[in-house]
């Protein structure tokens, strides 16, 4: 029997689920509350969200890690793997530097989330984006939003069906399809972060504070089609191509490392022999 079939993602316990639900709820509010803003005065504060969100995000991420450790018993091996994968993701991101949406980082994040599970994946995606921002000098008000969005991408990969049984080409097709969709959704969510307070836009795609949510969402869709789709689609294509071509080797390596790390094996101490 193939040993890869015996490797399961790091499971979610009640504490992990609660921590992920909390950080996701905070992120959803941070991204979406300007749509409910009543006017220019309340909207102007949205540009100052980033420091507060970053201050809230770090302890929440730590809470996800602590909850996962409490549920599963992760040890230094898991933290080491998190560091290695985050460094690899941060190193991949500058290769395309976002040019025309060419971001090879996405395929590694999707495959890592698939193997390591939603809780581990969320932390990995957020930490990788933080590390890449420090590496490329991309620190700015958008960074905490990028951390959240990439965390969701990795978490979604960990929630895909068939984590224990789906293997081979079918799994690659599922991961490729998810990578394509999540690449576009990532760009869409990040647009939502900046669009409400970008001035000088054409009336048809501008955010209008106080307008009904449905009307603003219609303008937002038009804004995405007019501005970012040319980056989101190439990102999706690159993610699919890399997932299908490099996916088998990367998945095998990740599952072998996870199996050898034996995250869920209880640690026992034996007295020294005399």
Automatic annotation (TrEMBL):
<feature type="transmembrane region" description="Helical">
    <location>
        <begin position="142"/>
        <end position="160"/>
    </location>
</feature>
<protein>
    <recommendedName>
        <fullName>ECF transporter S component</fullName>
    </recommendedName>
</protein>
<keyword id="KW-0812">Transmembrane</keyword>
<feature type="transmembrane region" description="Helical">
    <location>
        <begin position="172"/>
        <end position="189"/>
    </location>
</feature>
<feature type="transmembrane region" description="Helical">
    <location>
        <begin position="17"/>
        <end position="38"/>
    </location>
</feature>
<feature type="transmembrane region" description="Helical">
    <location>
        <begin position="50"/>
        <end position="70"/>
    </location>
</feature>
<keyword id="KW-1133">Transmembrane helix</keyword>
<feature type="transmembrane region" description="Helical">
    <location>
        <begin position="236"/>
        <end position="254"/>
    </location>
</feature>
<keyword id="KW-0472">Membrane</keyword>
<feature type="transmembrane region" description="Helical">
    <location>
        <begin position="115"/>
        <end position="136"/>
    </location>
</feature>
<dbReference type="InterPro" id="IPR017196">
    <property type="entry name" value="ECF_substrate-spec_UCP037395"/>
</dbReference>
